[in-house]
Amino acid sequence: MSPLVCIQKYSPARAIFILLSLLLISCSEQPQPSRSTRNLSMMSDSLVNFNRAVILSENQQIEDFVGRYGWKMQKTGTGLRYLIFKKGEGIKAEKGKVAVIRYTLRLLNGNLIYSSEKSGLKEFKIGYGGVESGVEEGILFMQVGDRAKFIVPSHLAFGLLGDQNKIPQRATLVYDIELVKLK
Fold first, then answer.
1. Which pTM does this prediction carry?
2. CA-to-CA distance for 61 and 151, rounded, in angstroms?
3. Per-residue confidence (pLDDT) for residue 120, from 0 to 100
4. Could you give the CA distance from residue 151 to residue 65 in angstroms, rounded to a whole number?
5. Does 50 lie in the same domain as 19?
6. How many CA within 13 A on the CB side of residue 101?
7. Does one domain contain both 9 and 93?
């Protein structure tokens, strides 16, 4: 028999008392997390731990790579490594300017992916996207005529998916860049 049918047998005052009692009893108990909430929490913790392990592994691969070549690179707070190995004498890059670069792009294993030799010089407005966030960050350390090496971790490059062409998922990128001019 449903609770409403039982309540209808009693006087209105008694029915209200029963309803209020039921509400008070149900409201006084501490809410318990549902199984799905607990499962989400456990899954979230697992994903956080997995991401930490992936980042640590990628950082170790980058450190090993830099060590093999003996490069004395600077590291930014985001994880970008850069080395300006030839100083130019032009103006410094800044947000809002259009950068024109000559570049080669390789993976950590040395495979050549893209280059301006094949695809032409690349232009992009600094601070407005159009290139990987790691390249945008690194270009701000340069002035016209500088040549630099950037090691761009996957989270500053094409991330989990790659570029759906030549760059695989979670790829660390190694750029050799020359800032040819600013417009």
1. 0.75
2. 11
3. 97
4. 10
5. no
6. 32
7. no
* Ranges in the chain, pLDDT < 70: 1-38
Residue 141 lies in a domain: yes
Query: What range does the domain containing 51 cover?
Result: 45-182
Residue labelled with tokens 């103006």: 91
What total number of domains does the chain contain?
2
How far, in Å, CA of 120 to CA of 182, rounded? 16
**Could you read off the pLDDT of 149-179 as tens digits, one per residue?**
999 999 999 998 999 999 999 999 999 999 9
Burial of 63 (0-12, 13-18, 19+ CB in 10 A): middle
Q: Which of 181, 153, 175 is nearest to 85 (CA)?
A: 175
Domain annotation covers residue 99: yes
What is the rounded distance in angstroms from the CA atom of residue 172 to the CA atom of residue 62?
A: 8
Plot region of 105 (φ>0 → left; ψ -120 to 50 → alpha; else → beta): beta
Q: Give the model confidence (pLDDT) of 22-44 as tens digits.
A: 555 555 555 555 556 667 777 77
Angle at 65 between CA 61 and CA 67, to 5 degrees: 115
Sign of the Cα torsion 126, 132, 138, 144 reads negative
